Amino acid sequence: MAALTGAGLDATLATASGSLSGAVMNYGLQRRLAFRNAGPHRLTAWRYLVSCICAWLCNLAFFFLLHQILTLPVTLSQLVTTGLVAALNYIVYKRLVFYEQIP
């Protein structure tokens, strides 16, 4: 995000872009590190995609609220947004995306 805002991109657009690029790498890491016994990709991949869209929208909404409406600084807005979305993502992944356990 810092590189994008440093290059002149609007902070809200930069956080949205960062959220999308993070989601691309996150699926594989979640499957390998956090939810090793998750169900097959054919079940988890589409749920992950839907959860990413929801997380991306939450990221955008939280950042917009904190930075544009409450006029908090960019760094603080992004830190709070990241914490909120990370907590939300873990709950969604555990309960809805990777909940099947393979014996």
Automatic annotation (TrEMBL):
Q: Which residues cross the membrane?
A: 45-66, 73-93
| Location, primary (coarse class) | membrane
Q: Which GO terms describe its cellular component?
A: membrane
Q: How does the entry describe its membrane topology? A: Multi-pass membrane protein
Q: Which superkingdom, per the lineage? A: Bacteria
| Keywords recorded for this protein, A-Z | Membrane, Transmembrane, Transmembrane helix
Q: Which InterPro entries match?
A: GtrA_DPMS_TM
Picking any one GO biological process from the record gives: polysaccharide biosynthetic process
Q: Would the keyword Membrane be found if you checked this record's keyword annotation?
A: yes
* Annotated signal peptide: none
Where does this protein reside within or beyond the cell? Answer: Membrane
Domain GtrA/DPMS transmembrane residues, every copy: 3-98
Q: What Pfam families does the database record attribute to this sequence?
A: GtrA_DPMS_TM
> Which named protein is this?
GtrA-like protein
